[in-house]
């Protein structure tokens, strides 16, 4: 695949498009180099090709090892990321790396130091949350980890920076949605989306887990649902009669795996936007009719599920931690604030003590029978 187009009248023979992205291909001393230039803009692709080819030629022909540029490191990391990261993580990292281009495109890897990271932090926190900044730094760290594995740098300066106290995020207070407001919103939602909201309330699933739910994850015989959560961590939750009834109302689109779908069986690409649209329409209508409506987030269904689970004494705080897929029990313990002292005592001790007593009894019976 040869030349494509010209830039300022000069033919560029070693650049070609692939699925809308520009790629480089050339040989240096008999070795072929082929890699993505990570851009849809030809002029930018040409500049990246020129810089990367010059670096490779200098190293191969003259033994000159120049400091690795940030852009060339990202280009090299790209193939590693495709092979070693999940599709969703890789996509998110690319978004973050695009946000950091203003700060890094003209830098070498050696230029990335705590001072530059502080500059990035200050600028980004003007326009994004701490959580978004931490995701951006995680993406940056992934590239630098790869650079270390290639011996381009000796250390990754983001590691200490990402754990600094200044990046500790202040968690928003938990707010439970009001039942009347929930009824108003769900009444205005399309049938399948309303069913998804109801499923979220009785399952405690995260939004991404719910709208990524496949029929293959449901096991009616074992009465279980296998969930793949954050960082591909797997957990199993009960498949209740209420859940089965909701799923039974969803016509399964032939050839598509999703439980909750739209259009021609497609997965919801942006359910948060859809939820926001419905919420705004309901709020506007409520304002016109002088009706009380308290807006809430889709994630608040998960909060209400957790509090209801503990209030009704269905299980302990530790069982709830497993059902929600929390890494730390401290996250789950935030829901204790919504309980009465008696409910809190039962959540913390009642069920677990009972379970421990049953386990001790079973152990004693086993020893006796053995």
Automatic annotation (TrEMBL):
It comes from the Bacteria. The keyword DNA-binding applies. Residues 351-360 have a biased composition (Polar residues). Residues 171-349 form the Tyr recombinase domain. The keyword Ribonucleoprotein does not apply. Keywords: DNA integration, DNA recombination, DNA-binding. Residues 68-148 form the Core-binding (CB) domain. InterPro entries: CB, DNA_brk_join_enz, Integrase-like_cat_sf, Integrase_catalytic, Integrase_recombinase_N, SAM-like_dom, Tyrosine_recombinase_XerCD. One of its GO terms (biological process) is DNA integration. Residues 350-370 are annotated as: Disordered. Belongs to the 'phage' integrase family. This is Site-specific integrase. It comes from Sphingomonas paeninsulae.
